[in-house]
Amino acid sequence: MATATTYNKDEIWDLLSEVKDPEIPVLSIIELGIAREVTIDENKVTVRITPTYSGCPAMNAIEKEIEKTLRVNGIQNFEVIKDFSETWTTDWMPEEAKKKLKEYGIAPPGRTEKDDDFLKNIKGSSRVIPCPYCDSTNTELQSEFGSTACKSQYYCHDCDEPFEHFKCI
Amino acid sequence: MSTATKELTKQEALFEYLIRLADDRLILGHRLSEWCGHGPILEEDIALANISLDYIGHAANLYEYAVEIEGKGRHRDDLVYFRNDPEYKNLKLVELPKGDFGFTIARQFLFSSYSYYLYQLLSDIEDEQFRGMVEKHFKEVKYHLRHSREWVLRLGDGTEESHERIQDAFDDIWTYVGEMFHQDDIDEVLQDEGLAADTASFKSDWKDLVADTLKEATLEVPDWDQFMVEGSRQGLHTEHLGHLLAEMQHLRRSYPDADWE
User: Fold this and answer.
1) Cβ–Cβ of B135/A169 closer than 8 Å?
2) Edge-to-edge, what's the strand order for the sheet holding A35-41?
3) Which among A54, A55, A65, A74 has a CA at the least distance from the CA of A21?
4) Within a 10 A sphere around the Cβ of B246, how many other Cβ atoms?
5) pLDDT for A128-156, tens place per residue?
6) What is the per-residue pLDDT across B191-232, written as a single tens digit (0 to 9) for each?
């Protein structure tokens, strides 16, 4: 049976790249920035993860999926640690992952904007979100809340399709 | 000896402080979840359910940290399912029945704007783990504030009926807002250690934000100096909390050893 020593760090990262977000199955937990660090100490593998949204129900499923992936690959001695010391942000998402989101039909997040003056700009960002289907910028925000915690709802006035936007946070 | 006593006090105070924050969010989250399937429009049904989930997530994080601080090996669920109403320390404001959509929005606006200022201060807290949670929650609270503020404007400056309903909501709820700024020895002990926010420091900014928004919504600002209820942080509640807990806890208490796996 394989033990943790059989794997090096890169190989553990490869295993983690197989763990997808159950709500957005095109993205792995690495592309989402959920998996932050892998350490191997003697025989023990430790995976540090950062939760996305506080109430995201997918987080428990993701934790279980990481445990399952390690286990089926013969790793018994492991720990998955939820870490709050860094605050998760969509700025961690690489360009390639954003491209995958768009192909999947979700408008990807742009860079986050500084919101130190939140109350002055309380009406929200005037940023235009292009339609992921037809690239039109003639789109309108319908609701800041969508089918999952991480998405808002938009409507495209050119192709008349509703679409979701992965919020910049 | 004196050091040991002081440390114990700080630990106990932090536990209690975390419980108060968590209870507010759990109970309001539960109240909001009652809108799921009953929202006035689909988008709002989804929005309120999302905000409810955020609150329950915030509470889960805070309870988890509270039991860690307490160090008695309790699980966060023990706090949720096995405490009775006098042991809950949430504000009465959050336990009131959900009312109509106007009442829910009025409460959301008052609580979200208060949370906004509270979290802004807590973002500088002298505790890395607590601060990390707060920074995450803070991002979500901004969405909650923007959402509820927009609805206050829309309902206040909307139809005759929507105006009347949300004005009634603010009038009815006003007696419950004073408690948000009540502070006691728990707050004092922690403020000395840089572990709690001094709510008095943002009270006037908060009142300005509330008053400005209500005015913009063509609503009357109720009298700040009217009678305000108190006692929530000491476990005194309205009759509504018991009913909410009965619904939330009965399954867990009926099958205390049940497991999902």
Assistant:
1) no
2) A35-41, A44-49, A78-82
3) A65
4) 11
5) 999 999 999 999 999 989 888 889 999 99
6) 999 999 999 999 999 999 999 999 999 999 999 999 999 999
* Stated pTM of the model: 0.91
- Give the C-alpha separation, B3 to A92, whole Å: 43
Asked whether the beta carbons of residue B46 and residue A145 sit closer than 8 angstroms, the reply is yes
Bridge partners (DSSP) of residue A153 are A143, A164
CB-nearest to B46 from A57, A123, A146 is A146
Burial A143-164 (b: 16+ CB within 10 A, else e): bbbbebbbbbbbebeeeebebb
Per-residue pLDDT tens digits for B103-152: 999 999 999 999 999 999 999 998 988 998 999 999 999 999 999 999 99
Contact (CB, 8 A) for B42 and B255: no
Inter-axis angle of helices B128-156 and B203-216, nearest 10:
30
Tokens found for residue A82: 């939820």
> Do residue A84 and residue B137 have CB atoms under 8 angstroms apart?
no
